[in-house]
């Protein structure tokens, strides 16, 4: 079974009565686009799917869209992305300890692309920065973000070094 995970929302009887299916959780931090950052929610979902289907789970997409700015050296110091990925991967490890069979984890995406949800280039997900703006203006040059080097170490350590 494959799943994508980015954020959680709250649904309760009151919101359903108002014909609103869900709302943002006011108790957790949110991304620049209002998506709740909830790594424990990922573990909860993994356990739920495992308990329900007893099938190996592949996390086909997980990541955070953010406004990445290059510093005076032209580099992106995206500690927020590292923290998002680190905390989510830590919860994946906890789900494995819970007994969930995880067969793959794939961050979205390795390189900045136009966001499917907002049609913006300024909503960046990648470990590699692409010099283009929302209107396709820029050199198109690619450069590695700080998160690239971090994720490279995570892969080399088989997830032991988060």
Report on the structure:
By secondary structure, this protein is an alpha/beta fold. It has a single domain, classed as Glycosidases (TIM Barrel, Alpha-Beta Barrel), CATH 3.20.20. The chain is built from 4 helices and 5 strands; from the N terminus they run βααβαβββα. It has helices at 13-17, 39-53, 79-98, 146-156; strands at residues 2-5, 57-62, 102-105, 128-130, 142-144. The strands form 2 sheets. It has a 3-stranded parallel sheet, with helices on one face. Strands 4-5 form a two-stranded antiparallel ribbon. Helix 2 (39-53) runs parallel beside helix 3. The two termini are 25 Å apart. The mean pLDDT is 94.
The CATH superfamily is known as: Glycosidases
Number of H/I helices? 4
Mean pLDDT: 94
Percent of residues in helices: 25-40%
CATH T-level topology: TIM Barrel
Number of strands: 5
Compute the separation of the termini in Å: 25 Å
Amount of beta strand: 5-15%
Order of the strands making up the biggest sheet = 1-2-3
Structural class of the helix and strand makeup? alpha/beta
Which spans of ≥5 residues are poorly predicted at pLDDT below 50? none
Order of helices and strands: EHHEHEEEH
Q: Please describe the biggest sheet, giving its number of strands, its sense, and whether it closes into a barrel.
A: 3 strands, parallel
Overall shape: it is globular
CATH class: Alpha Beta
Number of domains: 1
What would you say the CATH architecture is? Alpha-Beta Barrel
| Rg on CA atoms, Å | 17 Å
